[in-house]
Amino acid sequence: MTTKESEGDALFRDPLPKGFSRRVLRIAPGFKVSPEPGCLHDAIVVVEEGELEVECRSGTRRRFGRGSMIAIARFPIAGLRSVGAGPLVLLAVSRASLSATDEFLRESGSYFDC
Question: Could you tell me which CATH number the domain at 3-97 has?
């Protein structure tokens, strides 16, 4: 495994399999953003830089550092906050549309013949 792969790049290199999209969110230190409903509907989020604090609607908060992977759809999110000294950079990968299925495409690399 190369250094770049160990930093998370192996999971999100180009091109993504058909049916998936990628978003990069940059949040300045101390700022909080409230994602729009459906914005991160089924995203897996990786903390690329900085420190993330996820605040749920109940008021519960959890912090995640660089390299953390979070299944964001599992949380009833009220906000995402950058709590580190530097900027927060998040990489979110999700299905390209809400109509996507759980079927794997042959070209995604997740299929094999027995």
Answer: 2.60.120.10
